[in-house]
Amino acid sequence: MTEPVVVLENVDKIFGEGAADQVHALKEINLQIEQNDFISLIGPSGCGKSTLLRVVGDLIQPSSGGAVINGKSARQARLDQDYGIVFQAATLYDWRTVAKNVQLPLELMQFSRSEKDRRTQAMLELVELTDFAAHYPWQLSGGMQQRVAIARALSFEPSILLMDEPFGALDEMTRERLNLELLNIWRKTDTTVLFVTHSITEAVFLSTRVIVMSARPGRITADIAIDLPQPRNSETRSNVRFFELETEVRNALRISEGGQAASRAPA
Amino acid sequence: MSESRQRIWAPVLILVALVILWETLVTAFNIQQFLLPKPSAILGNLAQVVVHGGTASTGESAAELSLGNRFFVVLPGGLTPEIEENLQNARWVEFPFGARSVSVVRGSNLTPILAASWFTLKEALGGMAMGTLAGVAVALATTRWTASREALLPFAIAANSMPIIAFAPIMNNWFGIDNPFSKMAIVTVMIFFPIMINTLRGLISVDSRSLELMRSYAASDTEILFKLRIPNALPSLFSGLKVAGALAMIGAIVGEYFGGPRIALGVFITQEAALFRFASAWAAIIVACLIGITIYLVILLAERLALPWHPTFRA
């Protein structure tokens, strides 16, 4: 068995430590992610899902505990450009065309010109935006912008894709379509995905494992393997097992939230 | 299409209506011309009406050609300062040796006003170039070395609070009244702050996600500066330039009020007002306004060319 891609050991994160208004965001997080896993983090608002994602990506330093990524420190993994990141907002650079946005990481990583062009072309084909290469971000819909962000994150073939509610701001139809596209991309590449979401349906549909977190301080309260058959498609959503797993995740969330979830979780 | 036409015609119509109202009110209430000249008088001051064309031989006096004391003789080469002085003081002009062809024109000020405007415009543009360079340089430095921000900002605010009326005579002393650099220095100080503070805001107010993205690519500070901060600052730099463009002409003219060469616009306005030639002073003021508008439009055009991606230029 190959070594795990992500190993978190006793990770704690306290913002403003020692101050009167300190926030205990993460508590005793232990997590192992294997290669080609698709892991969803789900939990109530403010439970530290995004913080956990940023600890893995070395954008936030843990207060205590350690993160080992691909056998290295998180910092070394970042310097080695192991991470592709997609946020809830597409975060495209307004002054760059779609193609130039996809090329941004390739420019910074000093790919040759021909390699840059080849990869940009391939990525735009993957997210089906070839015709929009010369457009500026404001000329695109929200869903298209998010596809550009995904193409940008994948262009340099990172070993880990970190996604922070990437489809949270999109309408249901677009979200379902992009879910399918993301699964396609994930199957075609060798990427391990860490995916933060609010949606139980989305988490169950996409993931190989769903990690349920509790309200602040964020702890892992359940780790549910999603044993739905691959490849998943629109029929997966009508699978009986799909509903069972949804219920299982919902119950886990309810327990972790101490009853609050009963009113908040979608029916 | 019709919308863009409306954008041009609406202000033009308002302008025409205002000018007509102005003309009517001045006539109706018989307002003295030193209080407010009629628009027709101001425009007439700029219109160079050729009344009589002819030739003259050396030594012939203007009085012989002129049809009365309201007509002056202007040589084909335009007004020289000597002739201008003669025109103001006497009814006739001695033609310089060798002059052949002359036109008799009604005392137009277009040529001296345009010459003075060109001189003052050069001062304004020189000051704008220096002020912009200084403002952008300080903004970049305080972005790169955050510690210098606290150290430099109080001085920038002090420079911005400096009363320009007090500062202008000092610059005239430092660099010499006739040296255009004295006016450029005044303009530089005036526009430094709007340029600096706008550029700085653009460099600093970068979306935190965009920064995280750069960090995840392991980008260096220099790469972040060139690929994220500077492009992000360009729209606000242009906002600063639009403010600076208006201030530049004002700064140069105010500087000239405290002394400058006869050819300067501020000096021209002061002198004409002192000699009770208010229509001529107003004409110069209107030309100064037109130059200010032109500078603004040029910056607007440059902005469109430089930032084709900006959402404000959606077609």
Automatic annotation (TrEMBL), chain A:
Please give one Pfam family short name. Answer: ABC_tran
Keyword Nucleotide-binding tagged = yes
Q: Where is the ABC transporter domain?
A: 6-240
The keyword Ribosomal protein belongs to this UniProt entry's keyword annotation: no
Alphabetical list of SMART domains matching this protein:
AAA
What GO molecular function annotations does the UniProt record carry, in alphabetical order? ATP binding; ATP hydrolysis activity
- Which InterPro entries does this UniProt record tie to the protein? AAA+_ATPase, ABC_transporter-like_ATP-bd, ABC_transporter-like_CS, ABC_transporter_ATP-bind, P-loop_NTPase
**Alphabetically ordered keywords of this record:** ATP-binding, Nucleotide-binding, Transport
Q: What is this protein called?
A: ABC transporter ATP-binding protein
Native organism taxonomy: Bacteria, Bacillati, Chloroflexota, Caldilineae, Caldilineales
Automatic annotation (TrEMBL), chain B:
Q: Which SUPFAM superfamilies match?
A: MetI-like
Q: Which Pfam families match?
A: BPD_transp_1
Does Transmembrane helix appear among the keywords? yes
ABC transmembrane type-1 domain location is 117-299
GO CC entries: plasma membrane
Q: How does it sit in the membrane?
A: Multi-pass membrane protein
Q: Which UniProt keywords apply?
A: Cell membrane, Membrane, Transmembrane, Transmembrane helix, Transport
Biological process terms in GO annotation: transmembrane transport
| Location of this chain's protein in the cell | Cell membrane
Q: Which residues cross the membrane?
A: 12-31, 124-145, 152-172, 184-204, 237-259, 279-302
Database matches in Gene3D superfamilies = MetI-like
| Family designation | Belongs to the binding-protein-dependent transport system permease family.
**Protein name (Swiss-Prot/TrEMBL):** ABC transporter permease
Q: Which organism is it from?
A: Caldilineaceae bacterium SB0661_bin_32
